[in-house]
Automatic annotation (TrEMBL):
InterPro entries: aa-tRNA-synth_Ic, Rossmann-like_a/b/a_fold, S4_RNA-bd, S4_RNA-bd_sf, SYY-like_C, Tyr-tRNA-ligase, Tyr-tRNA-ligase_bac-type
Domain of life: Bacteria
Residue ranges occupied by any RNA-binding S4 domain in the UniProt entry: 259-317
Enzyme Commission numbers on file: 6.1.1.1
GO cellular component, one term: cytosol
Catalytic activity: tRNA(Tyr) + L-tyrosine + ATP = L-tyrosyl-tRNA(Tyr) + AMP + diphosphate + H(+)
Enzyme class: ligase
SUPFAM superfamilies cross-referenced by the UniProt entry: Alpha-L RNA-binding motif, Nucleotidylyl transferase
Protein name: Tyrosine--tRNA ligase
Length: 321
């Protein structure tokens, strides 16, 4: 975790501090126990064995693999051919990941298909340490909400499993239609036959929105509950089908009575920067009391309640303090 997996990366990942690693681990535990049985799960910090390795042991591990084999990795080869740096700690990453399998004597290791190469290194090193090689099981990568790249927080195309039901439902409804079947396959408990039926219905011209809503209900039910999924569906229809305001809108109290819209969007944490606020206004993605605002110099008078909408799903009530 401190080094970061270089798989699929065209440049070196930044290192994480011990504090960041522990905070991430707590979050991962919360998330994983939405799926796994806590009473049947054990967590290990691989630092508990990595930190005990002596220099001669690290050299011994490194001696069991060649640079030529490491350069067979597509991402390393691309960097090598383009004269981009590959640091030694990145070369060591797959070996240390493989050593994790040795330390816990893994029977099976799971991973995304981008981890296939790393997982095979684990099998090879286990043989070198006279252990039965682990079974490797990989899954296709989940495409993000942009419909292009793999889902990742880094690409801002992700749906967080800890997100509120309404936000989760809305993000799923925003995915491109061509991802509906992909998400049913990877994110739900639907049978293969059911998914084939959904695919047939789409090919026959059924409105994708209906199946997308079913998909959203399925996923929200897994991470929250069926009741929360139904409420999220009703709330989505209320806002997007019937063009009403959401039932619950966060409130921001402004000390300013007259303020530029750009400044208000930033100080109310609707957008991260003035440049981003200007871009959003120019794109036509900002509404004030239902009216689209296109003037980046627009002045907002706050003498009563106003409602700001940014994008499709972000709403905020602004009141004078």
């Amino acid at each position: 975790a401190k080094i970061g997996d270089p798989s699929g990366r065209s440049k070196t990942r930044p290192k994480l501090s011990e504090k960041e690693i522990k905070e991430n681990m707590k979050r991962y535990e919360r998330q994983i126990f939405k799926i796994l049985d806590k009473n049947k799960t054990e967590f290990y910090y691989n630092s508990s064995w990595h930190s005990k390795l002596k220099a001669d042991e690290i050299i011994d591990i490194a001696s069991k693999y060649t640079v030529a084999r490491l350069l067979e990795r597509d991402d390393f080869m691309k960097r090598y051919k383009n004269n981009l740096p590959i640091y030694l700690h990145e070369f060591l990453y797959p070996l240390f990941q493989a050593y994790d399998s040795i330390a816990i004597k893994a029977d099976i290791e799971l991973g995304g298909e981008d981890q296939y190469w790393n997982l095979l290194v684990g099998r090879e090193l286990m043989r070198e340490f006279n252990l039965e090689p682990q079974i490797v099981m990989t899954m296709p990568l989940l495409i993000g909400t942009d419909g292009k790249l793999k889902m990742s927080k880094s690409y801002n195309n992700y749906i967080g499993i800890e997100e509120e039901p309404n936000e989760m439902f809305g993000k799923i409804m925003s995915i491109p239609d061509e991802l509906i079947i992909h998400y049913f396959q990877l994110c739900t408990n639907r049978s293969e036959q059911e998914i084939k039926d959904f695919e047939r219905r789409l090919k026959e011209g059924e409105n994708p929105r209906e199946l997308k809503a079913l998909l959203a209900k399925d996923i929200v039910s897994i991470y929250h509950s069926k009741e929360e999924a139904e409420k999220a569906a009703e709330e989505f229809d209320k806002v997007f089908k019937y063009k009403e305001l959401p039932s619950e809108i966060p409130v921001f109290y402004s000390k300013e009575r007259n303020i530029r819209l750009v400044d208000l969007l930033v100080c109310a944490n609707l957008l991260p920067s003035k440049s981003e606020a200007k871009r959003k206004i120019r794109e036509g993605g900002v509404y004030l009391n239902g009216e689209r605002i296109s003037d980046i110099d627009y002045q907002v008078v706050i003498d009563k309640e106003i409602v700001i909408k940014v994008g499709k799903r972000k709403f905020l009530k602004v009141l004078p303090s």
